[in-house]
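Predict the 3D structure for this chain.
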Amino acid sequence: MKKNNDVKGYNIAIAGATGAVGLKMIDVLEKRNFPVKNLKLLASASSFGKKLFYKGNEIIIETLTRDSFKGVDIALFSAGASVSREFIPYAVNSGCVAIDNSSAYRNDENVPLVVPEINPEDVRLHKGIISNPNCTTAIMLTVLSSVYRYSKIRKIVVASYQSVSGAGQKGIHELEDQIKSISSGNKVKISKFPHQIAYNVIPHIDVFTDNGYTKEEMKMLYETRKILHDEKISVSATCVRVPVKSVHSMAVTFITEKNIPVKKVMELISDSEGVTVMDEPSKNTYPMPVNAEGKFNCFAGRIRKDLAFRNAVSMWISGDQLLKGAALNAVQIAELLVKYKILKRDHG
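Done. Predicted structure below.
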């Protein structure tokens, strides 16, 4: 743990600190100047003793155990659902608030599912755990929420083009290794994905369910309803893995209760927190992964009246999966906990 007894702030732990999202959490805490007093970096035993840096200070990785959270105010979890289910109860019993990036608690009715630009007040409902949404849902709703507030969205049809970072560091490495193998004429090794991902797209993320949709696709329905507090909205998703490092993109068509002119839709989205509109087709200007990688904002473009449905608009969205889809959203939730003074230490 990085200890700085001269600094006012909060004791933070990151579980899964050596993973793709965990590393971004460290970076986001620093870039957003979160009030960190002490930072504890936790990972599996295989990472014990390794070193990472925060604000130029070296921090030694500790092994994640049931006793890791004593004195911690906020624990950011990004180590997978099974790890969250095992260790978060101990974190909560230690008196800290757990912000979980996995799917472990998203469907728990007692656990808020929060995108700070959309439902910030839901953090007040927490009982020790707050869930981060699925990365694709978070990025999509960050863009669409201002439209929803203007006129309720009744249906969404979305095709996602999801980067390999959604499968963690192993996903990134597999893409890089396959590209090298193909370039050198060697046989491609397939491990993390069901098929070769280099120079390919795979219409299969997570396991298939009985209705023909994958769990990833069904998450977009269930989580959209929970975040918006709207059980009537329908979402039909097709989620596709693409050979892109860390940015998810989506082709989205949404149907609203009342007709909204495209100009008004663009105005609403342009005024949204956390969104940048890139929409000048005559100048070949529209969102792409190369624009969105490493950026806190999500990007929207190709905004146009849909030709197949009434009261419908189609658009293209891109957002960094490791940031708004994971680490950034988690840190923003932590910022709300501080802002609203609803941590245990704020009440003695």
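The chain has two domains: 10-133+326-347, 137-321.
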